[in-house]
Amino acid sequence: xxxxxxxxxxxxxxxxxxxxxxxxxxxxxxxxxxxxxxxxxxxxxxxxxxxxxxxxxxxxxxxxxxxxxxxxxxxxxxxxx
Length: 81
Prior knowledge:
Blueprint: H1 2-25, E1 36-39, E2 44-46, E3 58-62, H2 65-70, E4 74-75
Parallel strand pairs: 2-4
Antiparallel strand pairs: 1-2, 1-3
């Protein structure tokens, strides 16, 4: 019985770790809103995990993908937000 309980806990923790890593990779942060950065020159927006997220021209901030698109920005082809 104790062995099964430990195994169940390990599986649960493993499952939670997978769900969190997938959520973070997708740009979804639990309990917080994602801030997308938009490049004001190219009008391309990026999610936080993108290598271009902190570029010098990425000064526009959006809390939703739809907001960035509505402002005339397009999704980055690298991070695909």
